[in-house]
Each structure stands twice: as C-alpha cells, then as structure tokens.
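Propose amino acids for all 334 sites.
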C-alpha cells in the first residue's frame, strides 16, 4: 500500500510542502479542486520534487472538456518527468449546471466518452495523425500542427476516476486505469459494491483487478492529546455530515441501515443548519467511516481496515505536523 499526502494552494508554501512530503517518505501527493485550481499546485510541486508522484484528486471533469484535460495532463506528465496521474470526478448536477454553467446528462456514459476522447487526443499527438473522435457528447476532429505538442517523452499519464455509485465504478474499470474511492465510503461498501462494479467494468476491456489502481482518501481521527483527538473527531463528523446530506451518497448509509440519517442531514442542509449537522454523526457512524487511533497505532489501524482493498491510501485531513514523519515511518516498517 502506497501512502499519499496532500498539496495545498498557499503560493508561499506549495514547494516547501511538497518537499516535506517527499522527505517524510510519502509516495505521492494529491491536489484537490475545492476553492482552487487542482493543476497549478502540481506544476510547482513537480519542480520542487524528484520522486513524489503527483495527482489531481479530483479535477472536475464536466467543468472542462477532453481537449483541455488532455492538454493539462500531458503538460504535467512532462513537467513531472512521468510522475503525474489524472484523477477525475463528475461532481453533482447542481454544481455543474449552476456553478460551472456546463451541460449535464447521463454522467456515467458522458464520463466514459470523455475518457475515451482524452485517450484519442493523446493518441493523435503520439502518431501525428489528426483525431477522429465522434461521440454522443464530444467530437474532436481537428488538430493542426501548430497546436499539436507531439508525443510525450514520458508516455501518457494514468487516469483514475472517482466514483460512489456502481455505474461510475464500472466506467472506472472499463475506461480508466483505476478507481479513486470517494472518502464517504466504508470497507463494507467498498467490498460489496465498488470493487465488484470495478471488476465488471474491467472485464469489458479485458482487464483484471491487478491491472487497476484503487486509491482512497480516508478519514483518520487521531491526536497526541485528548483535545487534539476531540478536535479531529469533530472535524471528521462535520465533513461526514456534509457528504451524508447529499442524496447521491445515500446508498452508502443505506447499506448500513442508516438511510433515515441521510434524510435528516439533507433536510437540515436545506435549512442551512451546517454547523449543527455534525452532532447527528454518532461515534458508531464515525468509527465505521473513519480509522480512530492514536498516532503510534494509525499505520496498523489503516492497514487492518483497508489493506487488501486499496493500493494507495491518503489522509483526508492532514496529520498534525509533529506526527507526520513518525506515522509514515510506521507504514514503511510494515
């Protein structure tokens, strides 16, 4: 299991943060698209590091198109000398249509076609022939020499796809190189829903589980004191409540018999009661979603929970700085 960290956006500390992750022994670093662009920090991190693998986790696919995604990923693959991985996600309809003002329809089918189009564009750059991709959602048939970057000396980056539902997990297995598990998941949901769907998709393309990477940004609650642990738990509960309020994520809670919790979280989110929602996440729910352990037992607890299910694990929330190196060292010893 590879252990990854996160790259933030503070312009004064991106390079230093990336170097700290590499020096601490992390295998990779992910850049999220929340209030910032996910690609730009990785360009800085690529220059500041030599070994650290770099990935978007995630870039919102439907906010862009196959050509822009192919270009950004191709450039980062070259800047990082082959260390980049394109992590994509669909987001949900209101964000795509109201925040990005982009079209939304048939998300799984659209995502499959988007990934195939990206690969067709990369192939055109490799061979020097124009793309001839004609799909239901995307068409790419023009590439003049002035806009053709040529073949990438480091090859094409891998693509991993974020998914919660089974349909999107199937697309990850068929069209992508692996699955970026949504943090709002449990070991049981991964075993019973996500991994089987990934396998069904892989079979369509003649692949097996061994050909794919499964990466998880998982919740870990820890701290060097009772106060730190309580703060970590409160933050995790608040984030789980936020995710749990989304109807698209209801199946995860329903699998555990907590469907009514989703209904209550959704109702409160509609009333804007974000600050109060975390109190609805009790310790049983927290410990089902999150690894809860003191710093010196985090590595053992993560491997016990997720070993054999995921190939890469990252911390949804950064570990306290004093604990980072010791926790990573513990993973290395395992």
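Proposal:
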């Amino acid at each position: 299991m590879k252990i990854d960290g996160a790259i933030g956006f503070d312009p004064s500390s991106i390079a230093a943060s990336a170097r700290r992750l590499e020096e601490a022994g992390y295998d990779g670093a992910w850049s999220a698209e929340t209030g910032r662009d996910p690609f730009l920090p990785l360009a800085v991190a690529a220059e500041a590091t030599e070994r650290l693998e770099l990935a978007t986790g995630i870039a919102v696919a439907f906010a862009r198109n196959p050509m822009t995604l192919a270009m950004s990923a191709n450039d980062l693959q070259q800047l990082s000398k082959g260390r980049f991985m394109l992590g994509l996600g669909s987001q949900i309809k209101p964000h795509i249509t109201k925040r990005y003002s982009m079209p939304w329809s048939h998300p799984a089918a659209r995502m499959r076609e988007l990934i195939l189009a990206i690969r067709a564009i990369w192939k055109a750059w490799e061979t020097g022939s124009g793309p001839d991709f004609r799909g239901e959602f995307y068409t790419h048939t023009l590439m003049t020499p002035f806009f053709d970057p040529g073949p990438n000396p480091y090859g094409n980056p891998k693509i991993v796809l974020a998914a919660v539902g089974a349909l999107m997990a199937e697309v990850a297995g068929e069209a992508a190189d692996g699955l970026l598990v949504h943090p709002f998941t449990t070991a049981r949901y991964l075993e019973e829903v996500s991994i089987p769907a990934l396998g069904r998709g892989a079979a369509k393309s003649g692949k097996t589980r061994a050909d794919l990477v499964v990466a998880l940004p998982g919740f870990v609650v820890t701290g060097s004191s009772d106060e730190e642990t309580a703060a970590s738990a409160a933050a995790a509960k608040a984030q789980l409540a936020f995710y749990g309020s989304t109807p698209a994520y209801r199946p995860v809670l329903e699998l555990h018999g907590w469907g009514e919790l989703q209904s209550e979280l959704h109702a409160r989110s509609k009333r804007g009661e974000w600050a109060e929602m975390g109190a609805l996440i009790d310790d049983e729910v927290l410990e089902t979603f999150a690894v809860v352990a003191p710093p010196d037992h985090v590595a053992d607890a993560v491997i016990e929970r997720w070993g054999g299910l995921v190939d890469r694990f990252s911390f949804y929330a950064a570990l306290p700085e004093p604990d980072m190196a010791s926790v990573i060292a513990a993973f290395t010893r395992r």
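The chain has a mean pLDDT of 94. DSSP finds 14 helices and twelve strands in the chain.
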